[in-house]
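In this supplementary section we document a worked example of the pipeline. Step one takes a protein sequence of length 194 as its only input; no multiple sequence alignment statistics are reported here. Step two produces a three-dimensional model, which step three serialises into structure tokens for compact storage. The input and output of this example are shown verbatim.
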Amino acid sequence: MTTKIRKLLVQVDEIRIEMGQAVNPPTRRAVAMAVIENPYAGRYEQNLDALITIGEELGALLGEKCVQALGITPGQAQSYGKAAIVGEAGELEHAAAILHPKLGAPLRMAVEKGAALVPSSKKRGGMGTAIDVPLGHKDAAFVRSHFDAIEARVCDAPRSNEIVVAVAVTDSGRPLPRIGGLQASEIKGLDGLR
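The serialised model returned by step three reads:
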């Protein structure tokens, strides 16, 4: 791995009761975060290939960490998302270079299939900045029960020359979903939409 990772964190969120109602099975979401050195901090660079390569490496690593944390097989993953926070010596395009060109393919391998677009968010911020990692069903973007998010935050990152990269994976949708729309059991999974 060429990525300089200062810190890795993995968290699992498990909701067992919502509005006094039992959630059975519990809704579980995992988020894996890597705090990495930004190779372009403090300078403009036209070619961002190093960050694109880092994104590819982190897609696999963080996706696998989430699946392991949930204790599931890749095929049991239901939704996913990605996000990045760039420290003040970087730019938003640095987050885009990590998240968009190549992170998705290895993440899809880590969760088995993944026909739908991986929802994403990015921002600049200092140490302790939080970001919501948007979530959507991995095989069908129109499954409303899986529209969700999980917060990612690292108390001592990103430093000015760092980037926090987060990947989230779930083994379910939101707790007690009831707003209709395409159901997970109705997915065809061919076009990433339905």
